[in-house]
Amino acid sequence: MTPVLTARKLHRSFRRHRLLGPDYVTPAVRGVDLEVEPGECLGIVGESGCGKSTLGRLLLGLLPTDSGTVTCLGNQLGDLSKADMRRLRAKMALVHQNPLGALDPRRPVGDQIAEPLLIHRHLGYASQSARAARKEAVLRAVALDPVLADRYPHRLSGGQRQRVVLARALITEPELLVLDEPVSALDVSVQAQILGLLKKLKAESGAGLVFISHDLRVVRQLADRVAVMYRGQIVEQGSTEAVLDTPRHPYTRLLRGAVPSLVPGHRVKSESRAIDAFPEAGCSFAPRCEQARVGCRTEFPVLSSCGGSHSVACLYAPAREEIAR
Amino acid sequence: MVEVTTVRKAAGTPWSLRLAAGWLILVLILALVGPAFAPYGVNEQDFAARFAPPVLAGGTWAHPFGTDQIGRDLFSRLINAIRISLLLALLGTLIGMVIGSVLGMIAAHFRGWIEDVIMALVDFQAALPFIIFAIAALAVFEAGFWTFLLILGIAGWERYARLVRALVLQAQNDGYADALDSLGAHPVRIYLWHILPNIFGAVSVQMTINFPETILLETGLSFLGIGIQPPHTSLGLLVSDGRPYIFQAIWLVAFPGAAIFLTTLSVSLLGDRARDRADILTRKD
Fold first, then answer.
1. For this UniProt entry, which segments traverse the membrane (chain B) (predicted)?
2. How far A234 CA sits from the closest chain B CA (Å)?
3. Residue A28 domain-assigned?
4. Do residue B176 and residue A94 have CB atoms under 8 angstroms apart?
């Protein structure tokens, strides 16, 4: 199958000009490669500030890349004209973290759900009745009561709003969906509902999903593959079970250790050190790494296979047996 | 707290606001239909009744507001003047709003050097004593209705530009504009269909501030003789015409002066009220 999304060597940094001296440069995404197949969900995890959201925007062409290419549904995003890019957006959707902010406060949500059909007239929903029928269908798909369609966003609950945003994203039948922390702003019971809905959508629509989250438990429920990001780089990638059950990279293990669990005697590993400056050379995780050796400070680890589709960017990744212990 | 709210509710709309609203309605009706019912033409002369005093000062009902030095009926002239002055102020305010809003949106959309240029123009305009600019412009260009209207329109644009730019930047931060962009909506659609309705409340409050100022600018320039030209008339021109006879016939200045004063005051009062209400709305969230 041809992937719906292919990213090659993506780089993006943010600069802030200073009156005197050189600009502040903050690298957000550094050399990311990834692929998403149709019907597949790729989870992207990492701590806040690691470049997850920037990556999501780069993948949809909402932010220009410094270098590297994104190919989506056979189109190289940088080469498209603005009009073609807008047209392509019918097939690639973004779901934001904050559903209230993503909705116009002064229009009924039903109108907003159907608006992409007016934006993308080439999809052929020319008549009012065709649009209404399609709107009915997506409302059913996200299990939203049609009565709510006449309400304004502030009259809905958080879960209902996220359903509205999902319905709006789905109405054009996108083939790629980037979900940027879609459930982080919701409480746990509503999270479960939305996750159930997303699972159903993934199975039914056959769209490729990119699921960005800092919450490993949520990612485990939905993702087929997981990519772990640290400081703008993918440090570990592979099937969800492989990465989350037998993590090879010290950072993935640190992340996993930070998930609270109800096992008696289990204590959350906390880490107080926060390192702001990038190391000049070597592994960017080395300053925080418990297993860092001399070589880590000088040599740059490249993402390479450590068995099947599982790959890791660590010079001294422990063997599988060691982890099982 | 509960007591305070009940007291406020009991007080209802203050009488000053009721009067202001009443006056504005009267003035609007006069401006719309008044000239058709005016007893005399604007320049119709009644030489037998020059300097006739108003009714309450010993005049007759033939000329309820008195007449001027060549026997023109002040009441009929006043109704026509109100129509022209209100029309100019309204159109002038709208022109300023449209120019300012469009430039404000352009600045907020493109950022970069385009924004720098527009905001520099805004600062330039704000730093300029406008009446001097208007006098110069009217001296250079042919003084006609449209030139004059354009100058009135330009008078307040910089404030709309500044306001709209700030509001649009805020709307972009809110996320709904960004979300629509990611759905593939054309920027024109986002601005006209989504951002504009969201910021219109604040813009219309700015219009109520701008409107009385436009009336005053129009009357001021007409008083100086570089605004509306005879045979047309405006409130400022009436005051200007009556000025030489202020000691013989004070009504020639008093009636148009009162009309200017009451209209600007009324719009300001109602605008204040609108602003308070808008503030309450923003405070709620």
1. 20-42, 86-110, 130-155, 190-209, 245-270
2. 25
3. yes
4. no
- Residues B213, B214, B215, CA angle at the centre, nearest 5°? 90
**Residue A54 counted as domain residue:** yes
Distance from CA of B160 to the nearest CA of A (A): 22
Per-residue pLDDT tens for B182-220?
898 898 898 888 888 888 888 888 888 888 888 888 888
Give the phi and the psi of residue B71 in degrees, each rounded to 5.
80, 25
Q: What single-letter amino acid sits at B104?
A: G
pLDDT > 70: percent of chain B: 91
- Interface of chain B against chain A, CB under 8 Å? 174-176, 178-186, 189, 194, 197-198, 285
ipTM: 0.83
Task: Please report residues of A whose CB lies closer than 8 A to that of B178.
Answer: 96, 102
Residue A220 lies in a domain: yes
Write out chain A residues lying below 8 Å of B189, CB-based: 119
Tens digit of pLDDT for each residue in A235-261?
Answer: 999 999 888 888 888 888 888 877 666
Q: What domains are defined for chain B?
A: 17-34+73-282 (1.10.3720.10)
The DSSP code for A226 is E
- In chain A, the number of structural domains is 1
**A107 touches B at CB < 8 Å:** yes
What is the C-alpha separation between B43 and B51, in angstroms, rounded? 15
Structure token pair of residue A165: 């945003």
CA-based nearest distance A99→chain B, Å: 9
Contacts of A168 (CB under 8 A, 6+ apart): A112, A113, A115, A116, B183
Measured between alpha carbons, how far is B156 from B136 in angstroms, rounded to an integer?
17
Stated pTM of the model: 0.76
Record: contact B176-A102, CB cut-off 8 A: yes
